[in-house]
Amino acid sequence: MNAEPQQTVRSIRSGAARRTRRPWAIGLLLLSIGFSWGPANASGAEANVPWNVGVAQSKITPAKLMWMGGFAARTRPAEGTTDELWVKALALEAADGERAVLVTLDLVGVPKWLYDNLCRELEARHGLSRAQVRFAASHTHTGPVLREALTDIYPLDDAQRRLIAEYSGWLEPVILETVSRALDSRKPATLWAGEGRATIAVNRRTNDESKLVALLATGGTPNGPSDYTVPILAVRNLDGTLRTVVFGYAAHTSALTLHYRWSADYSGVCVREIEESHPGVVAMFFQGCGSDQSCAPRGSVELCRARGLDLAKSVREALSGTLREVEGQLRTAHEFVSLDFGEQPSRDELKSVAAGTDYRARWAKRLLGEMDAGRVFASRYPEYPVQVWRLGDRQLWIALGGEVCVDYALRFKREYGDLVWVNGYANDVMAYIPSHRLWKEGGYQAGAFEVYGLPANRWCEDIEDRLAGSVARLVARVKGVNQP
After folding, report:
1. By residue range, what is the domain housing residue 142?
2. What is the rounded CA–CA span in Å between residue 244 and residue 234?
3. Count of domains in the chain?
4. 457 is a domain residue
5. pLDDT along the chain (484 residues), means of 10
6. What is the DSSP string of 291-336?
7. 214 in a domain, yes or no?
8. Is residue 58 part of a domain?
């Protein structure tokens, strides 16, 4: 969100070699024994294949011109559509019968109320726990604002609030129906994992974007840490043909700066490029730990398209290279972590901020009103979501809520090895989540509480330790390691 200007596993390769390996052998075996797949939702164990996988998608582009999420400098609602927004669901069922559903959404984030409602309904309808469901926002800055999110940063009138509430009410059942269709469409498949590399991410805390083009033209290297990994999860039919591609990247989807038309930004360009080059394939994007990362150079429709094509090239290269087959095993784990506020604003501080005219003033005035009404501010964010999936024998897929900085992805790769993907902006996006390094440095990405409306100036100093401790517990759980 911008408010400011190995164990060895079998591999698969593309082309004839891929088409003539295991899939035809399975096909001949099934023909020889007269095997029938049975219903689409049969378990992987019953089908005697590694996975049953389903996918579904729904268009979620607002029909009305409402306010957009991202960039507090905006002064008016959306004015049209550059490209469509989507919710997509991937339903996974392993041979051992375990299930998980990944939901990707072209939204700036999923607010807490929506996360809770969706989890409640999916458990009631399909028996899916929080551990088994992941909502991954792309963090596009050209999607709609949702109810009870980004409370203060926009000068909304009553008409806009009604549009936001109306759209939010419409969106929830659309997401649920999309997940149901994905579950109903499950059929036998194989999963393949790998990583590409793309260098379009630039640390936005340590580089001057106005000088970036000149720096790159002279062969210079941007400052600060970034994560150039492009995680790839490919779903293939039993004949080896590609069905679905899930990929991620850690960089803000804000290549369209102050754009006033609906768009999925560079990730949408990449998704369309992959789907057009692989007819019938559904492509899905998840955001990595990109709170302090920009997709650059950026700033226009042309630059946004160029960055999306850059990323698509990386995805295609990974797909045509060597991928690891993912064994038919799945483990999921989830827990909430309580994050204390390390510092909260006083009445005098709020009065001073309220004298201004920007979004921070709206935040301060609202909090002063709550003070005057006798309300006591919450001293913590009690339910920060942490989630870990293990796909197959070794692939870890970590998910963290909020706008997570790149330090977390780099740390977890050091601690758990190369077969680790880290998904930020997952499940509930409530604020910026700094590492201890960023917490000490301060600045916008250390919290930006005024943007998200929380009554705080700072997180607790041990925020990184709390989150890393939670990840360690969940990793041990999905690996079946007993803990003291």
Report:
1. 11-337+380-478
2. 6
3. 1
4. yes
5. 45 36 39 35 54 98 96 95 98 96 98 98 98 98 96 94 98 98 98 97 92 84 95 97 98 96 98 97 98 95 98 97 97 98 97 96 97 96 98 97 98 96 98 97 93 97 98 97 61
6. TTEEESS-SSHHHHHHHHHHHHHHHHHHHHS-EEEEPS-EEEEEEE
7. yes
8. yes
